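Structure first, sequence second, as always.
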């Protein structure tokens, strides 16, 4: 009987504490506090294994394109507007760049070697091409007592980012007898269209150094396609575990050219698959038993 009374008392105390926690705390969209975002604990990043140059028997740099229109990649594109605990990838990157947490590289140049950090003014003009200024109206400046043209810019819409370029390095570590891949950089891409809506090409907005961005990506949740809200992934998890679909568009070569510069159509796709198969076969050839 005493044990029964003790158990009932513990249950009542637990329920009271839970109810009191709800009454005293601020409203939250859920039954428990999450510790992934900034409001909670620092999420640990899985560090890369240290690699010595002397242990690398073979390496090559690969550039891929992640197309967000593919079903597997839609976690990078949605939600279109930030919700309570989720943002799409371009919103996460732009917010971190505007806050100065991570650095954007490039702008006028395709800086995939991270040599030209963008200034504050260049960050404000991300996505604007030369000649895309739009004059609105003529206005009068009372301070200088003169008229001037008030000019605005067509700032790119973030939901127009439907592709990402990924620069990565594949290498074989003879010390551990493993083939590994490390992502080096990410670059959002938008399609350019003329006034008639005809596609005229692509524009790379900026490059982000991936190891620097991991501290932000590791705290940015991604919707679990298995519909399990208690087992959310982060963008760092998605990239680290290779939970995305992509196609190879370039491999290190003496001409520094993309596949599209010497192959077209189905031949370009076959060339990309050939490069992928070569890496797969090389892993088996270099394996130490």
């Amino acid at each position: 009987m005493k044990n029964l009374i003790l158990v009932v008392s513990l249950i009542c105390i637990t329920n009271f504490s839970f109810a009191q926690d709800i009454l005293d705390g601020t409203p939250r969209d859920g039954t428990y506090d999450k510790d992934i975002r900034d409001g909670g604990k620092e999420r640990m990043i899985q560090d890369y294994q240290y690699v010595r140059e002397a242990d690398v028997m073979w390496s090559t740099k690969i550039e891929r394109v992640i197309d967000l229109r593919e079903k597997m990649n839609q976690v990078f594109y949605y939600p279109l507007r930030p919700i309570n605990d989720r943002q799409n990838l371009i919103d996460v990157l732009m917010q971190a760049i505007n806050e100065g947490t991570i650095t954007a590289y490039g702008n006028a140049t395709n800086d995939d070697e991270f040599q030209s950090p963008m200034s504050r003014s260049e960050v404000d003009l991300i996505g604007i091409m030369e000649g895309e200024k739009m004059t609105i109206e003529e206005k009068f400046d009372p301070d200088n007592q003169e008229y001037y043209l008030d000019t605005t810019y067509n700032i790119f819409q973030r939901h127009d980012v439907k592709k990402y370029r990924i620069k990565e390095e594949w290498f074989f570590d003879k010390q551990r007898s493993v083939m590994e891949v490390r992502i080096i950089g990410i670059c959002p891409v938008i399609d350019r269209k003329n006034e008639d809506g005809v596609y005229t090409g692509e524009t790379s907005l900026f490059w982000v150094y991936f190891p620097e961005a991991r501290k932000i990506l590791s705290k940015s949740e991604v919707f679990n396609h298995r519909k399990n809200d208690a087992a959310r992934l982060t963008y760092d998890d998605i990239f680290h575990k290779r939970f995305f679909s992509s196609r190879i568009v370039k491999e290190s070569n003496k001409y520094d050219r993309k596949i599209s510069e010497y192959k077209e159509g189905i031949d370009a796709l076959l060339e990309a698959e050939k490069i992928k198969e070569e890496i797969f076969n090389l892993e088996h050839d270099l394996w130490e038993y």
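Margin note: The helical segments are 2-24, 89-99, 120-124, 210-217, 235-240, 265-286.
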